[in-house]
Amino acid sequence: MRKFLVVLDDSRECLNAMRFAAMRAANTGGGVVILSVIPPDEFNHWIGVGEVMREEARERIHAHFEVFAKWMRDRQGVDPELVIREGEVVPEILAQIEADPEVGILVLGAASDRKGPGPIVTQLTRTAGSLPFPITIVPGDMSKEQLEAIT
Fold first, then answer.
1. What is the pLDDT of residue 85?
2. CB contact at 8 A, 53 and 41
3. What are the residues whose beta carbons fall under 8 Å from the beta carbon of 57, sequence distance 6 or more?
4. Global pTM exceeds 0.85
5. SS3 of 81, please?
6. How far is CA 25 from CA 56, 58, 90, in A?
7. Is residue 136 classed as helix, strand or coil in its secondary structure?
8. DSSP letter string over 9-27?
9. Coil, helix or strand for 134?
10. What is the pLDDT of residues 8-58, one digit of tens each?
């Protein structure tokens, strides 16, 4: 089964990437892997405090994931899987794709403000020609209806 990998973060454009990945998976008989990356700089504290913060971050990720997972199951009939990694985002995306040979497409949401499409999109598109997988970039300001029309 081909899986769509989508990154879960706090950005507004994440919502459209999630919607697109779920709709494409439903329409093609694929799956969805939702990757959330905990940056390492969040835990540069004493060992005990760092462990508590790490656990709190995981709890927030699980709660955020459940919102998207419920929508995907209820509306699209897709049961996504959650993967949580710790490290820098782009290297962890690449590591996840290498670790899961069923991942066929990376779906990213692009910001629509003047600051640019966002750091993940910027970093990955610089090297897109040498990556061993396709990237789908979904505009963050597309409406639900527009997304449905293209999936």
1. 97
2. no
3. 38, 42
4. yes
5. strand
6. 30, 26, 23
7. strand
8. -S-TTHHHHHHHHHHHHHH
9. coil
10. 998 889 999 999 999 999 999 999 999 999 988 655 556 667 778 888 999
E strand residue ranges, the chain: 3-7, 31-38, 81-86, 103-110, 135-139
Phi, psi of 125 (to 5 degrees): -75, -25
Read off φ and ψ for residue 14, nearest 5 degrees.
Answer: -60, -35
Tell me which residue of 122, 109, 118 sits closest to 4, measured CA to CA.
109
DSSP assigned state of 137? E
How many C-beta atoms surround the C-beta of residue 57 within 10 A?
17
* Token pair recorded at residue 52: 């508590």
> What does the alpha-carbon distance between residue 55 and residue 8 come to, in Å, rounded to a whole number?
17
Residue 12 φ/ψ, nearest 5 degrees: -65, -35
Give the residue from 98, 95, 123 showing the smallest Cα distance to 108: 123
Q: Is residue 132 within 8 Å of residue 25, measured between CB atoms?
A: no
Q: What is the DSSP letter of 64?
A: H
d(CA 69, CA 148): 18
Residue identified by tokens 């905990």 is: 38
